[in-house]
């Protein structure tokens, strides 16, 4: 005799009841048949008789009927609208703060808020990207003017322009440069432990070098003596050496008029320097300030050289100079040529980026995100120095359009192109941390930007704006480690808290 079947689904038991009901089995025989087939306790006699009566009434469905149940209130339209309104009012708000700021009559749990944010509003969280500086309107105008001027020169001279360019800049070279994170990667087996690496800081010993180069290679490298700086007089002497090097290494270049590409540092823009360059009859092209992406030495030469020096240790300045010279001589002409030709595509990219910004801003102004609650994402602000107004953005785009009208669409297709210390300043107004700077951003909006805060380093109690008063809390340099941790905790407590009275902050510090 076979054992009774166990673990049978309820729907299958109901199907068997429907079968016996169709065979006109009595209400006494059907439970006996179920017990013989599926064992004791498969279904109560009362439930068997109830389903038999329903099947006699011509019911065919063996599944439970849908029931309304408890109404869904945690994620209904009112709850979603409440969460959305709170997010729109404060883009930096957290989930805990949303629970506190719920409107009257609406109670939403923490898990329900998370469900609304992630499932209903489709929000994602990103970490902020830091930018070193937000360009002012004047800086952006200089970028546009420089891009327009360079592209105009290329349209006029073609690829011959690259052979006239001589560029250079200054840079520090340390005796010990830490290797990058990518350089320290190693292959390991599955059963091996991950390697450990101690934190290394840049050495104090260093030497400054002024490097000038063109599309064919390095023209000259000038190393500054210790305890000296680059001033106008020194820079003029370097330019005189550069002219001699060009005459010796690039015959005929002086007669074709050198195009000197350098930045607007004070020694470079001094009157004595300008007078010397006028006597040389050189053409000067100054790339815009705070634009390392448009300086060939900053985006091509120096990064590759510093990458090569990563992880190397030198005993003195002579060893550093010898290694730098050796690396510069090993690079072939094609490598230097590609660095000069990258200028064209980078200036063109500078203009194209403004067209994309204008298109994105126009789409944002013509769309209303209040009718699309399901398309929301949370991104971090881009850290920059200043924020542009709508008028400034309009003028920026108009410059790009004016410049692009002067060029043919196909004229460029052939181009190949750590700090430690014992003191801490506590301010009346403390800026956001990187995590606090995260904001909620709806789809269609431009990525927000945030500028780093610049504050004075001394107490100033005579300012008209109380938020700019700075408070200094001095601590002995040989303090115990417990006080060091206390300072760190105080800084965390003071984050984003304005203090309008010196006693407010001093009381907290004491």
Automatic annotation (TrEMBL):
Lineage top rank: taxon: Eukaryota
Name of protein: Transposase
Native source species: Cordylochernes scorpioides
